[in-house]
Amino acid sequence: MKLTVDFSSLFAAARKMGDPIEDDFVLDTPREPWEDKLGTEGIELEDINDLEQTDGLLSYRGRQVLLYIQDHGSKAQEALLDPKVGKKYHVAECRTLHKMRNEGRFERYVVTNDISGEFYITGYDYMTRQPVEGKTGLHICKNCLTYLNYKGYSKPGNYSAFKNFDLSEFFQTYSSFFTHMPLRKTGEKEGYTSDWPEVSRAFRQEKGYTCEKCGVHLAEQPKLLHVHHVNGVKSDNRKANLRALCADCHSKEAFHESMYVSHTDRQTISRFRHAQQFQNPDNWQEVIDLADSGLRGFIERCRSGRLPVPEVGIDLQDDTQEVKGMLELAWPRQRLGIAINERDRMHAERLGWKVFSVHEALDSFTTFVTRL
Length: 372
Prior knowledge:
Helix content is 30%, strand content 19%. The protein is α+β, with helices and mostly antiparallel strands. The chain has 3 domains: 2-29 and 189-257, no CATH class; 33-177, no CATH class; 277-370, no CATH class.
């Protein structure tokens, strides 16, 4: 668990006296035993109703998790040899999980935020009746992908979201919906040269602390500007292989499935973009490029339905021009918006907006469309 201390006012004063400074100050506190267990073997639920949901995504004590059935009975040995015959795991409150809740079914459900893709299962050999256990790579529930319209999966004939499903990428996609991120994979930081911090700092300064993709200027928040290795080789620090990218743009690059960017950081970048008079998107691809990655399924649904292109990341101001919150997507003429954070939603509704969460909008898409 991390406690982040806000020294923004102090750092703002310091910047007036010279170059931008790194202000990512974090206090680390020991992780609780159950947190470590959640990230390794998982936590066995006594009741499926102990499982929570965050905007349609499965969660446990504020952490994004997945759910699977550990006890595979007589199918355990077969599932260890061939994962596709194993029981599917769940990442969202899909119709299958909804049915299980209603029927009061409980079959040793385990919650975990281990993103390795390997699952510990138990059972017995159907011939010898001897106990069987081990790890195998179970497959994602297709109903979960449909529910979220993950990577446009609900579109007929689109099977790539299932065939190429990656847990790290999935958890990264929805990182804004949760305050706690899963542990990074072992060895993820390997490959960087010992002088990388200085190389990165010098390169960002050379680029004027400006994202080379979206153009946002982040001298006031240098920690939100990263340096990307174009060819993926972290030890290759040739300038031709480096690119300065804001955290939002960087997380959307290929092979960055374990780069988790908080909702607060994405909103900060969005505010800088607006303050620097970025133009509103002209098409849906620009919306995808600028919006939070967790909205991708909804955006794809809007694009296929040929809905009007929204504004991305607009601040909500009261009569005194004080910022009260932010909408991730907004159609100002209709006073209609999408929010991730519940506080943003409440502020917007007080100001006369009709606001949906992303999964409410997906679940009631026809109702949503009638408001445009």
